[in-house]
Amino acid sequence: MKNGTTLAWMCGAALSVALAGTPPEAGLWEVVSREAGFTAKDLAAGERGRGAARALESPSAVIAIAGIVKVKAPLDFVAGRLRDVEWYKKAPGVMEVGRFSDPPVMEDLARLRLDRSDVAAMKRCRVGACAIKLPAETIEKMGREIDWTRADARQQAEEFFRTELLEYVKRYLVGGNRELAVYGDKAQATSSLVRLEAILEGSKCLGEFEPALLDYLRDYGGGRMAGAEDFLYWSREKHGGKPVISVTHVTLCRPDLVRVAMASKQIYASHYFVGSLGLTMLETPPDKEEATRMAYVNRSWLDMLGGFFGGAARGEVSRRAVSAVQKNLERMRKRIEESWRKQESR
Prior knowledge:
Layout: H1 3-19, H2 28-36, H3 40-47, E1 52-55, E2 62-71, H4 75-82, H5 85-88, E3 94-99, H6 116-124, H7 136-145, H8 153-175, E4 182-183, E5 190-191, H9 192-201, H10 204-209, H11 211-219, E6 229-239, E7 242-256, E8 259-269, E9 273-283, E10 292-302, H12 310-345
Antiparallel strand pairs: 1-2, 2-10, 3-6, 4-5, 6-7, 7-8, 8-9, 9-10
């Protein structure tokens, strides 16, 4: 993390604070508890830094999880760690991650590689029958531009994928939500915008904690939110059987002196996901101690939960997700506190 960049964001945050109203009467954990139903035992575990997580009510194809944990480090430091995407994404299963430049350039994707199974899927790919998520027009273009008989077919496939991904990101940054992908991998096309709108409809705690950010996510048409920081990153992560290549749009804002909100909106995923939104909300405790209360809420729409066996799979996926969120919060808490102690010792 570069100090100049950090100071630039803090200056922007100061403007945001100057324009913001007062914090909501309810504290962060109270707001999230209205959806998650955290018990007194859960809240006590969060205060001790052990973390707590619960599944939320959601549509059948959506896995929704909320978690809380208290971090013994000040708000500004915690926010700074979270905005360093290559630092906070270090976790089991994360194979590669890279932040896009402003504006995005091809070099941003130089480290991105396709799994052999993805290359094989692209070779067999047809509109309505494809084992990797791509828009119909991209699938048709791929059939014209990649010569699978050549020895360098894999290299062609990777160059094609990186080029199409970069162009998609550029269109999104100009046109906003209306440029979100419509996947043509199955017989019935799937609009990621429709899925995003459904996810945002259920994000009640963000609407109470920072309504301006919810409005920005819902109405995003390109451009930036006043007083906030935006950036995009790509990642390659293990989710179940296949590595998933995804692109995420992060918005970090500070509505007042004691709160920070960060939204991570997935705008592309090569497998499983047709929409996902992660919300990380931070608040200085009422007693103003040198600590930060953190709440994390994730809603992900999974195409694997449809069909006859979807109901049975959903329960198991949800249970694993709850456990994963709790462990990730505890791991993040430990890493941030260790980083804070090192800084203080210097």
